[in-house]
Amino acid sequence: MIVTRLEPDSHGDVDWPMLNGDRRSVLTVGVFDGMHRGHRAVIERLVERARELGCLSVVVMFDPRPGAVHAYARRHNSEDPGRGYVDGNLVTSVDQRLDVLREYGVDRVLIVRYTMAFSTKSYVFFLGQMVGRLGMRQLVLGSDAVMGANREGTVKSIANVAASTGVFELDVVDDRGPGHARVPSDSVDPIWTPGGEPQDPTKGMTRAELRAWSKRHQARQVRVWSSTNIRYLLSQGRIGEANEILGYAHAVESTVIHGEQRGRTLGFPTANLDSHAEGYMPADGVYAGWIVDLGPAATSGTDDAHGTDDAHGMADDRTVSETFADDAPHMDGVDGTDGSSPSPRRWPAAISLGSKPTYSAVTGLHDRVLEVYAVTDEWIDLYDHRVRVEFLSYLRPQIRFGSSQDLIEEMRRNVRQTLDVTGSES
């Protein structure tokens, strides 16, 4: 898979590459944040049609998200976000999305930096560029896709252009999924329940109660299979529901840094992640999941800015830095791939996200921290390594315990729960 980054000029024009003079393309366009089941239905159809027609499969992907760019511009006198801009509502990073496109066998990915100047281009102009420069023979879109200035390029209007010009075909994929959900515009506190994930606050409401709740929270109706709904579910700690829509475990990626090292004194040394994690952080709480070592941060993979695709840097065996408590359940490291070398190393993980309420009053530190306890007998050194943290199940909210011993007992229980959730043995 070849990845190319493209920068619009000050007028919003893009210097599209000539892909292949002898082969035309089947193309799709979008952000694909989350790469959920609906997105995957579109990508699967794209690759299928490209192979049937002997064409290149091409994905045109926007980064940053158009919604984030427009929101930033409204607050900053129509300016574009700078290079260091961090989109806190991004479900998956560009690298994570590229991994999925690689899995499906996409030939080319063109990542266009979305700017306000680019946003002024009409959908008709954009379609002309796709046909003339990228050799688009067929355009594959989801059923409610839109493109172009003022979102005027609906599926219906694009179908009219395709029919009237005859230069490309439109293939619309049913990516709607199981109905709709209501997502509030303001913040809604999760409803914690003992022994399970937070609950849907609208569960059991009558129609009148649901209307009142929607009005109070300015809720809008969105597709269940949508990035907006996934973000809402993650913000509520409803990991199981989010993962069902994603079709895989939600994950964030970051670099392991030095923390307070209190976990070591408690018998549960943790990997502390840099606050600049890629991926959407769910609600504060304790989760069961996996931690995957992607290798030293300096060499772990990103998409190549010059149009070629880099292999991801993977970890080799490292020297010992920490041991784990003798009385805690353990699990040997598991190779999470098909056995090819080099490969990521993967362990069950008890994941804590929050401000450490048991100690914050003493330390005065109230920052939100992501800590991961790798449940393993191995001695591992993950400092300065890039890791992926996968969330499988919500275990409990952040709690202030009366003593360190009470916290230790609860952490032991959380480790046992993690081993159950991941299907590992103690």
Model description:
By secondary structure, this protein is of the alpha/beta class. It is 28% helix and 24% strand. Helix 1 links the parallel strand 2 (25-30) and strand 3 (56-63). The two termini are 40 Å apart.
Question: In summary, what is this structure?
Answer:
The chain is an alpha/beta fold and 426 residues long. The protein has helices at 37-53, 66-75, 94-104, 123-134, 155-165, 207-216, 227-235, 239-246, 262-266, 357-363, 404-422; strands at 2-6, 25-30, 56-63, 108-113, 136-142, 146-147, 153-154, 169-173, 180-183, 220-223, 250-257, 271-273, 285-296, 334-335, 345-354, 369-374, 385-396. The chain folds into 3 domains: 2-173, Rossmann fold (3-Layer(aba) Sandwich), CATH 3.40.50.620; 178-248, no CATH class; 249-422, Riboflavin kinase-like (Elongation Factor Tu (Ef-tu), domain 3), CATH 2.40.30.
Task: Give a quick set of tags describing it.
globular, six-stranded antiparallel beta barrel, 11 helices, alpha/beta, 24% strand, 28% helix, 3 domains, Rossmann fold, 426 residues, Elongation Factor Tu (Ef-tu), domain 3
